[in-house]
Amino acid sequence: MDTSDRSSRRRLVLIAAGSVTALVCGVGIYGLATGPHTPTSTPSTSPTITTSPSPSSTTPATASPSASGASSVPPVTRSADPEQFARNVATTLFAWDTTTGLLPLDYTSAILAVGDPSGAEQAGLATDVAAYLPSRTAWQDLREYGTTQHLTIDRAYIPDQWGEAVAQAPDGQLAPGTVAYTIEGTRHRTGTWNGEPVGSAHKVEFTVFVVCAPTYDTCHLLRLSQLDNPLR
Predict the structure, then answer these.
(1) Beta-carbon neighbour count of residue 132 at 10 Å?
(2) Cα–Cα–Cα angle for 203, 207, 210, nearest 5°?
(3) What is the average pLDDT score of the chain?
(4) What would the pLDDT profile of 143-184 be if each residue is shown by its tens digit?
(5) Lowest CB count within 10 Å: 77, 102, 144, 159, which one?
(6) Where is this region: Disordered (predicted)?
C-alpha cells in the first residue's frame, strides 16, 4: 500500500461520511465528519464549579512545572489498548486549572499531540477540542474564582451505532484499528466564591474516535463528538 492510499484510508470519517450518509444524518457521526461547532462553556455571573470527587474517583493529573519554571499540561498517557487510550484522552481533555497561568490553547495542544500522525483530521480535531474548553474570555472569568476541573469516568463502551457505521462502510474506507468509544462520566469543577469553597458536578457523555493497531503501534486520536451528543 503506497503513502497516498494509507493517508486516504486514515480519513475514516470524511470518507465514511459519504458512504454511510443515512447513518450520519440519523445517528450523527459528526465527530468525524464535521466536528462540534458550539462552545460548551460560557462565562457566567457566578462560577460553575465542583464538589469533591467520591473516594472511588481517580485523582486527576495536575499541571507540573517545566524546566523553565512555568507550568505545563500533563500529556495524554499513550496506550496500545483502544479503550484505555480513549479513557486517557477523556481524562486529559477535562483536566484543567485556571490558576496555573496556562491558557485553553495549552490544553488544546496536549490533546493534539496524540492526534493522527497523518494530519488528515488535525484541523477538525482542533475545532473539536476548542468546543470542550472555555473561551479565553470565560477562562479569565473562571480564573477569578480559582476554578479547576476534572472528569470521573463511569463507563466507556463501543456504541452500537459505531458497529452500524462500520458494517455499512465499503471495504478499505476505514483504517484498520479504527474504533469509537462513548464515555459517560461526571465533570467536576471546584473553586471559591466570596472566599468560600464551592463546587458543582455535571453528567457528561461524548464519543472518542481513535485509530490503533494494526495501522499504528500505539493509539492516536482522530476526532471527538459534540459534548452530550454521543453515538449510542
Answers:
(1) 24
(2) 145
(3) 77
(4) 999 999 999 999 999 999 999 999 888 887 889 999 999 999
(5) 144
(6) 36-79
